């Protein structure tokens, strides 16, 4: 009965120690971050960001330490949460910002909700979707799906969501995070088609915190990738090397995991499913490829340019 809103929190947080419960919907979810250092004594040095919203707007929520292994996989995009005994902090200025599906939504960027095991011990409750009432005014999850034919007109770094039928998936490769560091990013290339163009989506998929998806991307699976960023080679021929890469908030889903996801209501997703029903599986199978070395963007034709 005594709920507060994100808008009220922003106005009153400095003058309060205890806050009323919050009822919010998760709109974005970041990958899990490990911040352990050899000299620091933190039992479970994990952190994950979520963007949560109610009728008043959207704010970041941070899950800390041992709450991450306990809650990270249960809190999905679209999940409704009741939060009690949380802390409010000034927001971290250098974190990545996902692009909201609803451009009209107000963003509270100066503060963030902090969920910890103590000081104070946060209580998190997941409200089942069938118990969510319309009068709570929680926003729906909105997406920015594009078709392959629309990709040519999008600027560098534009944020979008895509769905396609996988025709190629490369082996997992590694790239150093820093020049002489010992940490690596793991990524793989994939191609996906959606019937709107002769060209596939070229996808650079970094390992998100979803190993069960990342490791099982196969040809002929329906692949959904959210919060992807357009990468254009602006130097030479802009159209030849346009591809999409994952961001910190990207989520990937493959056949078998789509049921119940909020994007299944999206018009472009429905159009894609209609298109797949017109395709012959045997014909598409002939065109699929798996594994091998995939040099992309392609090196120039002669050594001088290289």
How is this fold's topology laid out?
Layout: H1 6-12, E1 22-29, E2 33-34, E3 46-54, E4 57-64, H2 67-71, E5 80-84, E6 87-90, E7 107-115, E8 123-127, H3 148-151, E9 159-169, E10 173-176, E11 184-193, E12 201-206, H4 211-214, E13 222-231, E14 243-246, E15 252-253, H5 267-277, H6 281-286, E16 289-290
Parallel strand pairs: 4-7, 9-16, 12-14
Antiparallel strand pairs: 1-3, 1-5, 2-3, 3-4, 5-8, 6-7, 9-11, 9-13, 10-11, 11-12, 13-14, 13-15
Pfam families: RADX (PF17659)
GO molecular function: single-stranded DNA binding
Protein name: RADX protein
Summing up helix and strand content along with how strands pair, one would put the structural category as mainly beta
Helix content: 10-25%
How many structural domains in the coordinates? 2
Distance between the amino and carboxyl termini: 66 Å
> What's the CATH first level of the largest domain?
Mainly Beta
Q: Would you tell me the overall average pLDDT?
A: 92
User: Could you spell the SSE succession in H and E letters?
Assistant: HEEEEHEEEEHEEEEHEEEHHE
Ranges where pLDDT stays below 50 over 5 or more residues in a row are: none
Outline: globular
- What summary fits the major beta sheet? 8 strands, mixed
CATH fold-type name of the largest domain: OB fold (Dihydrolipoamide Acetyltransferase, E2P)
CATH superfamily of the largest domain: Nucleic acid-binding proteins
The CATH architecture of the largest domain would be: Beta Barrel
> Can you count the helices?
6
Report the sheet-strand fraction. 25-35%
Cα-atom radius of gyration: 21 Å
Q: Give the beta-strand count.
A: 16
